[in-house]
Structures are given as C-alpha cells and as structure tokens.
Amino acid sequence: MKNVPTYSLLCMILLILNSCSLLHREVVRVTPNTAQSQICGKCHVEEYREWEQSAHRNAYISNDFKEQSENYGDEECLTCHVPNPIYGAEELTARNHNLNEGINCVTCHLTPEQRIAGPLSVFPAHAINMNDPFYRRSVLCGTCHDEHFEQWEQTRELINQSNPEKTILSCQECHMPKIRRKLIAQGFFQYAHKEHEARKHTFTSSPAPYNKRDSWLLIETEVLLEAKEKWPVRIIVSHDIPHALPAVYYGFKEIDFFVALKSFDEQILDEQVLTFSSEYDEYIAPNKKSKYDFYFPSSIKAQTEFLEIKVKRITNNADSDDKIIYFNKRRIYHVNSDFDPDDIMDTLLF
Ligand code: HEC
Ligand code: HEC
Ligand code: HEC
Ligand code: HEC
Ligand code: HEC
C-alpha cells in the first residue's frame, strides 16, 4: 500500500481546493440554461461516450421523432424527449436549450437545489447529493417509461403475493450493465480517485440474460401425434422479463415466431408465422405462460423429421438491427410418439 500517503495528501489538497464544492459551478447551472453534456464529458469521459451512442441521446434528433412530432410541432412530445431535470419534478416539462442532446446528463442528475445527485459515496468536484437511493430504483426510469414501470410494479406485486421477501431486478440492473471503473478518466485528479461499482450508460436495448440459461424466452412445445386432418403443434411461451414483449409503446417493434416442420433433408414442408407487433398492441405478457396452437396439414406428417422454431425481433431503428433472438430445433420421433430430450438444441442468439 505504498500509494496511501500520496493518496491522502492528494485528498487533503483536494479538500482545500474543493471548499464545499464551489469548484466547477458551470456543472450545476440553474434551469433553463443547465449544463451541456459535453461539460460533464470532460471529466466523465466514459459515461459520456456511452450515453452518446444511446437512444436517449437521439431522442430528439432521430428522424422518426422529427417526423412523428410533426417537425417538433407537437409540444406534448417534447416533455419526455427533451425534458427539464426530472428529479423531484411533479410533472415533466420541455426544455428550450441544448435540444439536440435529447435526454441528457442533467435530465437525470440535477436536483432542484442545483446539486448533482448520484448513487455512490464519492469525493466530489461539484455540489453533490451522495448515496441517493433514487438512482437504484426503477421509478427513475418509470418517470418516462410509464407503461414499463406499471408492468414492472404489477409483476413485483404478483411475485410478492407468494413470496413477500422476494425482490425483482430493477430496470438499471438489466439495462445498465455493471462495470467497475473510475468515474473520472481525464486530467490530473483522476489519480486521486478510486474505482467504483458503476453502471454503463448504454441503456442497452436487449440485455444479456443473467442466469445460466441462454435466452430470456422459454418455449415448450407439444406435438399431438394422433391428429386427424389437421396436425396441431402447441407452443407455450414464457419469459423472465418484468414487462411485456415487444417492449415498446411509443416506437415500433415486432417479434415474429416462425414455426416450421422440416423434412429429413432440411426442406421446409410447412411454416407458420405468429406476429406480436407493438403497432397492433399485440404483446406477450410478463409472468405467465401463454399458449399458441398451430395447425399443420396431416398430409406432411409422414415426411416430417424436425420441428424448428425461430424467433426474430424486428425494429425500425437502424441502430438495433433485426435479429434472431431464439432458435430451437427438435427431432420428431414418430415411433415413440414423443421427442427425445437429448435432441434439444437451444442456441444463444440474444
Ligand atoms: C410519457 C413520455 C413520452 C411522451 C409524452 C412521448 N414519448 Fe415518445 N417515447 C417515450 C419512450 C419511453 C420511448 C421508448 C420506448 C417505448 O417506445 O416505449 C419513446 C419512443 C418514441 C419513438 C421511437 C423511437 C424510435 O427510434 O423508434 C418515437 C418515434 C417517439 N417516441 C415519438 C413520440 C411522439 C411523436 C410523441 C408525441 C406525440 C411522443 N413520442 C411522446 C416516451 C414518451
Ligand atoms: C471537473 C470535473 C467534473 C465535471 C466537469 C463533472 N464532474 Fe461529476 N464528478 C467529478 C468527480 C471528481 C466526482 C467524484 C468521483 C469520485 O470520487 O470517484 C464526480 C461525481 C459525479 C457523480 C457521482 C455522484 C454519486 O454520489 O454517485 C455524478 C452522478 C456526476 N459526477 C455527474 C456529473 C454531471 C451530470 C456533470 C455535468 C453536469 C458532471 N458530473 C460534471 C468530476 C466532474
Ligand atoms: C426523461 C425521460 C426518460 C427517462 C428518465 C428514461 N428514459 Fe429511456 N427512453 C426515453 C425515450 C424518450 C426513449 C426513446 C428514444 C428514441 O429512440 O427516440 C428511451 C429509450 C430507452 C430504451 C430503448 C433503447 C433502444 O435502443 O431503442 C431503453 C432500453 C431505455 N430507454 C431504458 C431506460 C432506463 C433503464 C432508464 C432508467 C435508468 C430510462 N430509460 C430512463 C425516455 C426516458
Ligand atoms: C430482467 C431484466 C429486465 C428488467 C428488470 C427490465 N427489462 Fe426492459 N428489456 C429486457 C429485455 C431482455 C429486453 C429486450 C427484449 C427484446 O429483445 O425484445 C427489454 C426491452 C426493453 C425496452 C425496449 C428496447 C428496444 O429497443 O426494444 C425498453 C424501453 C425497456 N426494456 C425498458 C425497461 C424499463 C423502463 C424497465 C424497468 C421498469 C425494464 N425495462 C426492466 C429486460 C429487462
Ligand atoms: C436516463 C437517466 C440518466 C442519464 C441520461 C444519465 N445518467 Fe448517469 N446515472 C443514471 C443512473 C440510474 C445511475 C445509477 C446507476 C447505478 O445504479 O450505479 C447513474 C450513475 C452515474 C454516475 C455514477 C457512477 C455509476 O455508474 O453509478 C455518474 C458519474 C454518472 N451517472 C454520470 C452521467 C453523465 C456524465 C451523464 C451524461 C453523459 C449521465 N450520467 C446521464 C441515470 C442517468
């Protein structure tokens, strides 16, 4: 620990320099002229870079928003897409400066007392509210993601009915991936600061599952072999996400299930598609098993060797490409009138 004396010395110098965080007043400017994110990015280099790539940063400048808000004519849209700071706000209001930053650093971090609030215990360079529990809670995200938050609360309630002790993951735990790092990555003072358990500001649109299983989706299949002219295949879908899928209410997203019966040489004999589209308010509800039946012609039964399920997510957002989020192929054994569990192939494709 030979760094300890240097570290303490630096801390002392900083304390004196800091004198109650009078330094860097430009950071905590009063509304309506709050600081530009670039100013925060001078010290919080990594958070800034992550945010810069996020949907939040594009909430105003995206073509879709520009078009759908009638070239920014619809005032109401601006309250969530370019809001004033949300901390303690009774209702959201639109700001009228730094518009192209969409949802920016001060939107989430500036308090009405002109302090910067956050979840950690830190050594500040600006006026700061430390250890603020608001930052760990889903309700922060729910300020604008009202539908997701409502469903998240319902899911929690449902789970707590059978197990009052159980907590569920917060929005942050899934959508802001964990990382250990220094909060400032610029200038001399970075050496005086230690690493923290922090979270990435990517606001990741499809987070990787936490558990060992390789997909958030769980699909069970039943094939009824003694069918007559129609051959039913039943799919039972559930997922671990505390909000419905597809998870957009204002934007567009679709999830398509492609269910195919294939021959021994991989030819598709018949394929049926089930679509869940946000455009038509079709969602897969959280916290329940949903059953869907597909009817195939019995005439293909003799040639059928495989049942294949592909699930694809489709967005109109160029940054989050369409992709397969679930794939499963099973061999159908006619003789045993059942599947062989050893033949199940689930592939990680999130
Ligand atoms: C209550 C807050 C709120 C208001 C008001 C609001 N939005 Fe949004 N908007 C969101 C959220 C949250 C998302 C992202 C997730 C989702 O779709 O649920 C979003 C996403 C979008 C997207 C999708 C962006 C993309 O790239 O696909 C568009 C476009 C959009 N909003 C346009 C509008 C328009 C136009 C209005 C006004 C008629 C509006 N929004 C009003 C919160 C809001
Ligand atoms: C001059 C450099 C500098 C600038 C500019 C700056 N910060 Fe900081 N910030 C710091 C330092 C130093 C810390 C404490 C880091 C530590 O102790 O590890 C900090 C801590 C934080 C924290 C953590 C608070 C907590 O308790 O969890 C947040 C959030 C934060 N800053 C947000 C911002 C925002 C938002 C802006 C722009 C409006 C900004 N900062 C501008 C240097 C800066
Ligand atoms: C001030 C309002 C607001 C707050 C607070 C907010 N969001 Fe958003 N969020 C939006 C809007 C608006 C969009 C849509 C932006 C766009 O695409 O135009 C969005 C988009 C998203 C997306 C979609 C990303 C993508 O790539 O399409 C995710 C995920 C998300 N937010 C997660 C979160 C999480 C997690 C929190 C809490 C830490 C949060 N948001 C807090 C308004 C907000
Ligand atoms: C257990 C993890 C988990 C939690 C907790 C969670 N989400 Fe999600 N969320 C996901 C996954 C996984 C997806 C992507 C599903 C997909 O690909 O269709 C998603 C999708 C989204 C999207 C759409 C992103 C896009 O572009 O398609 C938004 C917005 C979102 N979540 C917001 C929230 C908010 C707000 C909360 C808290 C109220 C929350 N989520 C809690 C896992 C989670
Ligand atoms: C949509 C809301 C939102 C926006 C926008 C946002 N943050 Fe954060 N920020 C959070 C949340 C939530 C946390 C707490 C994450 C956690 O639990 O560690 C956080 C934490 C932090 C921390 C403390 C370290 C950490 O990860 O816990 C710093 C520093 C920070 N943010 C800086 C910034 C800067 C700089 C910007 C702009 C480039 C920014 N934030 C934009 C919501 C936001």
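qc> Residues 4-199 form one domain.
qc> done
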